[in-house]
Amino acid sequence: MVFVCTVIMVILSLMWEISQPVDGTFIDLSEKHQMELIEKYVQERQLLSELKQRQLAINQQDGVQNLYGEEAFFQGHANILPDARIGESNFNVSKHLQENPHVIIQRKKHIDVTDKQINNETGTEIQKPKAKTKLKRVKYYDPNQGKIVYKPVIVEDKEIEGGAGHCRVYDLSGNLTENYDCIQLKVEPSTPICLYPDEMDVHISRHLREEGIWEPHIVDHFQKVLSLDSEMVVIDIGANIGQYTLIAASMGHRVIAVEPYANNIKHLQKAAQIGGLLDKITVLQNAISDSRKKYFLKLWPDNQGGVSLVMENPNPDSEKPPSVSTMYMDDLLEVITFNKALIKIDIEGHEHRAFLYSSKFFRKVSVPYIFMEWMKLRKYYGSEITNTEDKLLTQKLVTFLLELGYHAYSSVTMEKLDPKWWESWTDDIIWKHDFLAYS
After folding, report:
1. How many other C-beta atoms can be found within 10 angstroms of the C-beta atom of residue 328?
2. Angle, vertex CA 323, rays to CA 263 and CA 268, nearest 5
3. Which of 63, 95, 194, 434 has the fewest beta carbons closer than 10 A?
4. Of 331, 308, 342, the residue nearest 232 (C-alpha)
């Protein structure tokens, strides 16, 4: 009988304890337990007071003002009432214990909000490892001022990806000491263009020197589109030595030319200087891709238009192999102050990756026409049974542009192309938007 009564009393006691409010304000403690808790609290406060005095002394010695406040200081060191179970998270402990000695104060979680921590054993400051930094003079295009500006920026000691964000604006105002062979393009209005020696550029420069124009059928469509809207801006991705950039600028259009290879940019710069077109052209020394990183440039001794991106240094014997910072197409918004543009893109089979991060761009900018090289992309098809990454990404590009309202047309015949047979499309195509196309 005694055993049964004892069990009942224990159960009732447990039920009473479980039924108490979770804030702990009604937990009844014995007088002895209260005194033990208060004694522990007093000891803890004394320790914290000593640590605080050491912190203040170190701050005064270093000439650093203590801006963190008592609560922030305690967050790094508080261990108030270590056997507390529940209760309030509050640093007004003294007031609480005086008014409500039965309240259990919950331990504060460690949240480091200061730049300094104190070693509890030695009282010395624990220095956090700091990233090495350096002062860089960053060049970028300020749309508010409408020009290239500079500002000093303290950055971590690592490769800066470019400009105010990722766009690396090339300064076209510098003097060029190189001598280039420059001719007049056979277009109206005429514009100069500067060429490589034939043996260094057997395709574009040689053809321009012999014929006076490169891809005349595409240039014809290009100029027709620009003539429809004098405010149309041109985004020339893979500008090379600048034929399309220079033609658009000579027609009075503003151009953003994206070109990774510095030697190509210098040829474009020289021609723009001769033609008085510098105020129309902004050059970004970047490559547009599906990542933001550093790539090496693979060069060809006889084809300056065949520059491509590779991960590993193709010239390990070179002390300074040419490289470039890649960016997303969305990053073009860093330098864009307009809402309508024509895109010309020719980046040696990398087009399918360039559009992977472009949704923000197309939401901000209306693009009625996209002139695109397709010769290398169609080769990714392979066969019906192959499913390489390049093939899948090319199909994704086709689907993406179709969903945006574009249809592909042959740059030769201007016939509409069947998206199911993109592996047989012509070398160059023109994507026209459903609502903004000319016939």
Report:
1. 22
2. 20
3. 63
4. 342
The CATH architecture to which 170-433 belongs is 3-Layer(aba) Sandwich (3.40)
CA distance 336 to 233: 10
Q: Cite the DSSP H helix spans in 76-228.
A: 93-99, 204-211, 216-227
**What global pTM score does this model have?**
0.64
How many other β-carbons are positioned within 10 Å of the β-carbon of residue 128?
10
Domain range list for the chain? 25-126, 170-433
Which amino acid would we find at residue 156? E
Instruction: Quickly list DSSP for 338-365.
Output: -SBEEEEE--TT-HHHHTTT-HHHHHHS
Q: What is the pLDDT of residues 126-156, one digit of tens each?
A: 444 444 444 555 544 555 665 556 555 444 4
Alpha-carbon 366 to chain mean position: 22
Q: Where are the alpha helices (DSSP H) in 212-304?
A: 216-227, 243-250, 262-275
Helix ranges, 19-92 (H): 31-62, 69-75
Q: pLDDT tens for residues 234-256?
A: 999 999 999 999 999 999 999 99
